[in-house]
Amino acid sequence: QLQLVESGGGLVQPGGSLRLSCSASGFTLASYAIGWFRQAPGKEREGVSCISDSGGSTNYADSVKGRFTISRDNAKNTVYLQMNSLKPEDTAIYYCAADPQIPENYWHLPDEYKYWGQGTQVTVSS
Q1: Are 71 and 79 in contact (CB under 8 A)?
Q2: Which residues 6+ apart lie within 8 Å of 25 measured at CB?
Q3: Beta bridge pairs of residue 68
Q4: What local confidence, expressed as pLDDT, does residue 104 receive?
């Protein structure tokens, strides 16, 4: 059974950092593009970042550019989202998603991804 599991969420003060991890069981992440999404209460799920299967291409939402960094370690079957300079508006449930192939212009669309994790809560508050 293909499964994605997110970890690393928690409560952090504004300006702080967190690193989220997305690991897989039942399949090898190296063959998949991986996206990070987030959903705040009452809001639609939005694309945060995406990384290609090779790691050679990355994309970011304007709201996180310069603060978040996506990376992958295919040997560990894990994708990371390093989040720095966190703001209260970053508070949301963060999900990772996988698909064998994502057209670059559509990376931010949830419907493009076949597999999803259950999410991890990130709360930025003083």
Answers
A1: yes
A2: 1, 2, 3, 5
A3: 83
A4: 86
Average pLDDT by consecutive 10-residue portion of the chain (126 residues)? 92 98 91 96 97 93 98 94 98 97 93 96 98
Closest CA to 45 of 54, 30, 35, 53: 35
Backbone torsions φ then ψ of 111, nearest 5 degrees? -65, -15
Q: Which two tokens stand for residue 62?
A: 């304007």
* C-alpha span between 1 and 87 (Å, rounded): 36
Q: Are 124 and 16 in contact (CB under 8 A)?
A: yes
| Strand partners for 99 | 33
Surface-to-core class of residue 120, CB atoms within 10 Å of its CB (0-12 exposed, 13-18 middle, 19+ buried): buried
